[in-house]
Specification:
With about 350 residues, this protein is mostly beta strands. The protein has a domain at about 220-353: Porin, CATH 2.40.160.50. The chain is about 10% helix and about 55% strand. It has a 17-stranded antiparallel beta sheet that branches. The protein has a two-stranded antiparallel ribbon with strand order 13-14. The chain is globular and about 55 Å long. The two termini are about 20 Å apart. Mean pLDDT is about 90; it is low at about 1-25.
């Protein structure tokens, strides 16, 4: 918790001086395009540290240029990204060039502080990764009340990366510190495009259609998620996720089942398939800074024709939510198929209710 707050304060300090000003021709200084550019941890790089620099050109719709360089301690790889971004009242436009480690799962953010701390302390990395080199263009806008639209186009070369790191901190705390291998991808140069529609409010949902083409294959996907809370003191949270891809699908386009974002109690990516669904239900008996949580999850992943006839994963467990859900400690285990004696611990930062 203290480390997380330190990161926030450091980043704010770096970005607070100098400030953008319409009276200055150019402002520049150390700054990060994304908060997580400061540092991350995952199984393919170990700890990685970033240094960012920002140049801002003033105006009614200021143009900002961000340059970021990163170094992975375990893989000794230097990666980087440069982004030109213009924001206005109706949305924003961003152009990026990069050589970077990307997470491939649309439902599980590997490049996040939540995944970083879960990997360091609990020894669980909830993402798959690839090395990507190329460029992207992103358009963000509003299409209605509480509705946001994001359109992205990319052309990049994708290649596999190996699992090279282990968590010494998790090992010190009594775990093994070992991560499963990072699965390979179909290497090559690909063009990709996606359109995402998001709704904010008491009922939150996202719907995305995307496509990936290159190296002699083309794959399209449709996927989305929904989150709905019920009650106040007696709190119930329901989360649903589902997706389908055309076949054949390259490994980087498959959906993953298992882990904190789909079926807790199971290792991340226990199953990978072109079609999947997952449901999670959390129950908390009262409000407060500290409150218990009971949860149960279920999901299936297989080909479209036999999805609902395939064996389901069912898991459940208990947890303690702190500071209104800012941090959670979860203990979960597989229910079906049962894996006797296997209990999983996860540290969830900014978890669900």
């Amino acid at each position: 918790m203290g480390a997380n707050l330190l990161i926030v304060f450091a980043t704010v300090a770096l970005q607070s001086s100098p400030q953008d000003s319409a009276t200055t021709s150019i402002t520049h200084g150390f700054g990060f395009e994304r908060l997580t550019d400061l540092f991350l941890y995952n199984r393919v790089q170990g700890l990685s540290f970033g240094l960012g620099y920002r140049v801002a050109l003033p105006g009614t719709q200021p143009l900002r240029v961000y340059g970021t360089a990163r170094y992975g301690v375990s893989d000794e790889r230097i990666t980087g990204r440069i982004t030109l971004r213009r924001d206005g009242r109706g949305g924003g436009v961003a152009l990026s060039g990069y050589s970077d480690i990307a997470d491939l799962d649309p439902f599980s953010a590997g490049r996040s502080f939540a995944n970083t701390f879960n990997g360091l302390f609990a020894g669980h990395d909830n993402a798959d990764y690839a090395l990507v080199r190329g460029g992207s263009a992103t358009l963000e806008g509003s299409v209605g009340r509480s509705l946001a639209l994001v359109v992205t186009a990319r052309i990049e070369r994708q290649s596999s990366v190996r699992q090279v790191a282990q968590s010494e901190l998790n090992n010190f705390l009594g775990g093994t510190g070992l991560f499963p291998p990072n699965p390979p991808v179909d290497g090559g140069t690909f063009g990709a495009a996606s359109v995402r529609l998001s709704h904010a409010g008491p009922t939150r949902w996202n719907l995305t259609v995307d496509g990936l083409g290159g190296s002699g294959q083309t794959t399209g996907r449709l996927f989305g998620d929904l989150r709905q809370g019920f009650g106040s003191g007696l709190g119930i949270t329901l989360r649903l996720k589902a997706g389908a891809a055309t076949v054949p699908s390259p490994p980087q386009s498959l959906f993953r089942l298992g882990g904190v974002h789909t079926v807790r109690g199971f290792e991340y990516g226990t199953r990978r398939a072109a079609t999947f669904w997952a449901a999670q239900v959390d129950f908390s008996p009262f409000e407060g800074r500290v409150r218990p949580v009971v949860f149960a999850d279920a999901g299936q992943a297989a080909g479209l024709s036999n999805l609902f006839s395939s064996a389901a994963l069912v898991g459940g467990g208990v947890g303690v939510s702190l500071f209104g859900g800012l941090m959670r400690f979860d203990l979960s285990r597989p229910i079906s198929p049962d894996q006797k004696g296997k209990v999983r611990f996860d540290l969830v930062i900014r978890g669900v209710r």
